[in-house]
Amino acid sequence: MTPIPFQNAYKTQQIKVFRMAALKYKLLRVSATLLYKILCNGPGTCLPLCVIAFFFKVVGIRWSSTFYVESIARVRRLSLTGLLLYELHMADKFFVQWPQLQRKYPRAHYVGCLM
Question: Which residues, by range, are in coiled-coil regions (predicted)?
Answer without folding.
Answer: none
